Amino acid sequence: MTRTVKDIPPFPDYIDGQGDHDFMQAAWRQGPLARDKFGIVSGFSMAQMEAFNDDRWTRQVELEAMWAAGVTSGPMFDFVRDMVLFANGQTHRNRRGPLVRTFAHKVIAELRPGIAERAERMIAPLRGTGAVDFVAEIAGPMPARVIAAIIGAPEKDTDLFARHVYSAIRGLSICSEEIRAESDADMAALYRYVAGLIADRRAAPQEDFLTAYLDRVAGGPLDENEVRAQMVGLVVAGSDTTRGALTATVSQLLLHPDQWAMLVSDPDRWAPAAVSEGLRFDPVIGSLARISTEPREVEGYLLPKGTFVAASMLTALRDPAIYADPNRFDITRSDHPRLHPVFGGGPHRCLGEALARIELEEALKALARLAPDLSLDGPPVRLRGYGAVRTLGPMQVRI
């Protein structure tokens, strides 16, 4: 007798105080799949992640997540409707193509010296000032300022810019009516700001990223809403995940003084490895959700067309079939896959991977050189959640 979705075991009860990694590992111990109260089917292994991300039988979530949250209009709804991340097929190719060509690897690589200088300018004045809010003073501003500079926003606007970004992104998840209203207001503000930048570049083109992008989409299939949405998406995606990844990586390094000392001893050698391990050990992305486009048997269960499936990043990146001693933070490990799974795969692989790695590496190098005695001033950061982008808690350090 064929087993159905209803036969998939539900997630176990959450134990008060339990960490996300322990919770997801407990779910995995029940079996290869688990089902949550919304009917979303989660897989845990790296093999399941690869299977769930296969475009031959699943597709990217579009507006379904907004509808599930009861959202049918507003700035966040429009953003999801028009943004490349939430599109499939020809629509996805139309939106992604100009970004890929503008976001060429050589163009991004040439940004490294400026990003390194920006990191040092942010960190140097904080030395000797006592307790520092790492998220507010370093991890938050840095990626927001980098991405703002890429699209041509003046430096004086970046703090306001960052506040809009980090508020707006909350609306991508199920949230309270109050947070939804705040998120929509900040998303609308980002749209107005980006629309102003686009108008400026069209009136006075420059030798920069935004002008190049506008040249590529001129006369193409994208409407004006889609053009704006791709730039807003670049800003939102390029800020929040890097903020969380930098904080989580530094937190783990400081919890492992021997590995922090390795980074300090040779930042150029160990920064890339520390970034890869930080992204693996406590990823800022909790899971990758998709929708099945045809019936498919998975692990002995028949999943009908239209099933929401979610590959757990928390467990796949600690899969013992892939990683030796997977629950150990180790910047010397040599078993990372060639393409880091945290950036997704296939046609939807993260466009900003190269930029994110450069930002993370240069931030770690600057901290290692300018603040070799860096230490936690209180508890380590806690990332919370196991779906989509995880919530970032506070972290204080002494520089």
TrEMBL record:
Protein keywords: Heme, Iron, Metal-binding, Monooxygenase, Oxidoreductase
Pfam family, any one: p450
A single GO molecular function term of this UniProt record: iron ion binding
InterPro entries on file: Cyt_P450 (IPR001128), Cyt_P450_B (IPR002397), Cyt_P450_CS (IPR017972), Cyt_P450_sf (IPR036396)
PROSITE patterns in the cross-refs: CYTOCHROME_P450
Entry-linked SUPFAM superfamilies: Cytochrome P450
Family (UniProt): Belongs to the cytochrome P450 family.
Protein's recorded name: Cytochrome P450
